[in-house]
Write a structure and sequence with these properties.
The protein is an all-alpha fold. The chain has 17 helices and 4 strands. It has one domain (4-412). The strands form 2 sheets. It has a two-stranded antiparallel sheet with strand order 1-2.
Length: 433
């Protein structure tokens, strides 16, 4: 640990933030038994303490991302424990387990991507992994669905495509100077493969009627494409860029035309004239935000928990109702600060920069879809708010990507030496044997 004083100060800050929230619950929350508040406080403070003790065992140059992660995860646990009155029931316990899974997956993601040489050699396995996940979705989720129901838990395999797509963009960035003649064009084979992958993923999401996730996958690819334009000697002509922009525009128009009827209804619905139909969730979300005001009605005093997906798709409105718009915006800023850390500690190589860009694009678009959809600023898409919404697959995937983000701040560069060829036994050695 390079700066123990900074580490301790960060621990105190995170712990103070959580204790302040718990004190607000104690003073203004809706609970019938104080024991539920004590149990919640014990879980949150206990997770903080264990996390602070274990983190120094993982040698890193900076722990900024890790502190932001535990800050937002325990905030999420506090939020989810208050929506139906302060209680630690099965749903909250399930959310706590997924938060722990996110921490574990963060460490796994961190270790897997720190060494560029090693992960670059596995890029073909990454491509295959995306294909395998799509086959799993096709074979095990049922007709045009995205979920695998195991009874005690439901898994959304498409969520795990996100970190793989980020790595597919990052591990092929160094090949931009290796152009090949294809018909009349000089092309990079990896760029064509990457375009084919993202096109297949988006078409597959459309087929599975999960159109809300398409902007996230598109954002990952666009960020990787822009980094390719900026790559030294990438040599992307203006004509190609204009053609790409026109192509994207045409695809957007076609997507709106061929979109299913329920999607077009969401695009053009007047929620107040259809407040009991397609506009119901957004109407209730806007009413809840207005009722909460700046400082909220108090933890557990809200009504929005009676509306479907209050804990996931419209969680921003649920927080605004009980904790206030000021606190919900601050929660979103914590996520944005986590994404802004690479700007403070720049990545050490172009691979890590591309990886960070893809992760930041995915999180930013997903946050925008959830928050702006809840506020009726854009059509309602039904995607989760990273780390705050309740959801197992989304939580684990977000943990992996945050671990990748942290790895860019503490990279490992290992010189992989080629294996020496085995020496052939000489005539004397053969005779001796």
């Amino acid at each position: 640990m390079s700066n123990p004083v900074s580490y301790v100060a960060s621990c105190i800050f995170v712990l103070a933030a959580h204790c302040t929230m718990l004190l607000n619950i104690m003073m203004n929350g809706s609970y019938s038994n104080v024991n539920s508040v004590i149990v919640l406080a014990s879980i949150v403070i206990g997770m903080d303490a264990v996390y602070f003790i274990l983190m120094p065992f993982f040698k890193q140059q900076t722990y900024a991302v890790d502190f932001m992660l535990i800050l937002i995860l325990n905030m999420s646990i506090i939020f989810q424990s208050c929506f139906r009155g302060i209680v630690v029931d099965k749903e909250v316990i399930k959310h706590i387990i997924t938060c722990v899974a996110a921490i574990i997956s963060c460490r796994i993601g961190h270790m897997l991507v720190r060494d560029y040489k090693w992960i670059a050699e596995k890029k073909k396995y990454i491509w295959c992994g995306i294909g395998i996940l799509m086959v799993i979705i096709l074979c095990f989720t049922g007709s045009r669905s995205m979920w695998i129901n195991l009874g005690f838990i439901s898994i959304q395999p498409s969520e795990f495509i996100k970190p793989l797509l980020v790595l597919a963009c990052a591990t092929t960035i160094a090949e931009q100077q290796q152009r090949h003649k294809l018909l009349c064009f000089n092309v990079v084979y990896e760029n064509l493969i990457l375009f084919g992958i993202v096109a297949a993923v988006c078409l597959f999401q459309w087929w599975c009627r999960d159109l809300g996730s398409i902007p996230t996958f598109a954002a990952i690819y666009v960020s990787g494409f822009l980094l390719r334009i900026c790559y030294p000697k990438g040599k992307f002509s203006n004509n190609k860029l204009i053609a790409a922009a026109v192509g994207v525009g045409i695809l957007g128009i076609i997507a709106v035309i061929v979109a299913p009827p329920y999607v077009r209804d969401r695009l053009f619905v007047d929620i107040w004239n259809d407040k009991n139909g397609n506009g119901y969730q957004q109407c209730q979300a806007l009413i809840a935000i207005a009722d909460g005001g700046w400082f909220g009605k108090g933890p557990g005093h809200g009504f929005l928990h009676n509306v479907f997906a209050y804990e996931s798709d419209i969680v921003f409105a649920s927080i605004s109702e009980e904790w206030g718009l000021l606190f919900s915006v601050m929660s979103a800023l914590v996520l944005l600060m986590m994404l802004a850390i690479p700007l403070v500690n720049p990545p050490r190589c172009y691979y890590h920069a591309t990886m960070c860009a893809g992760i930041c694009a995915a999180f930013t678009v997903q946050m925008a879809l959830n928050i702006f959809g809840s506020c009726n600023m854009i059509p309602f898409t039904g995607v989760t708010l990273p780390f705050i919404s309740m959801g197992g697959s989304s939580m684990v995937t977000s943990g992996i990507m945050v671990g990748m983000l942290g790895a860019a701040q503490s990279p490992v560069f290992i010189e992989h030496k080629p294996k020496a060829p085995k020496k052939k036994a000489g005539a004397k050695e053969v005779a001796a044997k």
